[in-house]
Amino acid sequence: MKSLQELAAIREKMKGKVNLREGSNDIRVVVGMATCGIAAGARPVLNAFVEAVEKEGLTDKVTVSQTGCIGICQYEPVVEIFEAGKEKVTYVKMTAEKALEVVEKHLKGGNAVLEYTIANNK
Amino acid sequence: MKELSLNILDIAQNSVKAKASLIEIEIDETDEKLTIIIRDNGCGISKEILEGVTNPFYTTRTTRNVGLGIPLLKDACEQTGGSFEIKSQQKNEENLISGTEVRASFFKNHLDFTPLGDTVSTVTTLIQGSPDIDFIFSHNKCGSKVFLSTLEMREVLGEIPLNSFEVIKWAGDCLKEQYQDIVK
Q1: Per-residue pLDDT at B65
Q2: What is the DSSP secondary structure assignment for residue A116, as one 8-state letter?
Q3: With bands split at pLDDT 50, 70 and 90, how would you rate the model's confidence at A23?
Q4: Closest Cα in chain B to A1
Q5: Which of A70, B48, B104, B179 has an alpha carbon 20 to 30 Å from A22's alpha carbon atom?
Q6: Per the CB < 8 Å rule, is A54 touching B165?
Q7: Rounded Cα distance, A90 and A83, in Å
Q8: CB distance A1–B181 less than 8 Å?
Q9: Chain B contact present for A66, CB below 8 A
Q10: Of A7, A69, A73, which is closest to B153 when you measure between CB atoms?
Q11: Using CA atoms, how far apart are residues B136 and B125, in angstroms rounded to an integer?
């Protein structure tokens, strides 16, 4: 079984890194996790973002967080991306696969995947 | 909902909104019955509102006027012949403790039983979303037990936030390993 000693090792490894991260996150990925979002499949979408952001080494730049109902339940799972100085991008009817594409093209490459935005899914 | 673990995630989000500092999720399972208990120390629900929460047309949301979380869970258990109960206490002159407990029992062999699904993802999603809240998860199945407490984790981690990727991954792996032992 995973031991608390392993957790202590994680702590040692991460010490000092924590303060460095503070304030440097300039992109926020927000996943709707109310009843509507959860029922539509938001849990795997959130997990895909969390894993891909880590894998691509974007954790210093990007935070992934959860929110309640955004009010457009018919478009769930909904993901909003906030970036300082830029207009908010709203992705709709998301899946884990689409999330990986958004991480690659938008978070890493700097170009929104227009195909999945609300403007192109009305 | 496709899995009961999603209902658990959904109901636990209500506890988060109720400003709980501790949320306990307990699953008790025998060959024929499965019981889910979600208990929090949040602000509680008033008597008047408590009477209405199982009504699908009740919600506290401001974006629209229907709330489905509790009715969905109630339906999911009642369709198997099981039972649903919600108890809540708000702080007042006599009571210094507040909180809510949701208890749903299911008959597993009923045709309409929804599978429990991925409880590990539910727990890691909750920790990821609310790293400052403590969660105690336990799943008792025919004498074996899967257990995770963020209180214990926090003691070891000190100032390291619980939503750090490595920590979430550790929590998920820890639960998965325990589930493997249960299955054997």
Answers
A1: 47
A2: G
A3: low
A4: B177
A5: A70
A6: yes
A7: 12
A8: yes
A9: yes
A10: A7
A11: 14
- Residue-wise pLDDT for A51-68, tens only, equals 999 999 998 899 999 999
Percent of chain A with pLDDT over 90: 75
Mean pLDDT by 10 residues, chain B (184 residues): 96 93 97 96 86 72 64 94 94 88 97 96 97 97 94 94 94 95 76
The CATH-assigned architecture of domain A4-120 is 3-Layer(aba) Sandwich (3.40)
Helix (H) or strand (E) holding B180: helix B165-183
Q: From A70, which residue of chain B is nearest by alpha-carbon distance? A: B63
Instruction: Name which of A4, A3, A16 is nearest B156 in CA terms.
Output: A4
Nearest alpha carbon to residue A110 among A79, A85, A93, A92: A85
Between CA B24 and CA B29, with CA B28 as vertex, the angle to 5 degrees is 150
Return the SS3 of B106: strand
Would an 8 Å CB–CB cutoff place A20 in contact with chain B?
Answer: no
Q: Residue A92 — very low, low, confident or very high, per pLDDT cuts 50/70/90?
A: very high
Q: Are A48 and A96 in contact (CB under 8 A)?
A: yes
Strands (E) across A33-112 are located at 62-67, 79-83, 89-91
Average pLDDT, chain A: 91
Angstrom distance (rounded) from CA A89 to CA A80: 6
**Optimal mutation site among A1, A12, A14, A35, interface B, most CBs of chain B within 10 A:** A35
Residue B22 CA from chain centroid, whole number? 11
> What is the number of CB-based contacts under 8 A between chain A and chain B?
91
Query: CA torsion A55→A57→A58→A64, rounded to 10°?
Result: 40
* pLDDT tier, A39 (very low <50, low <70, confident <90, very high otherwise): very high
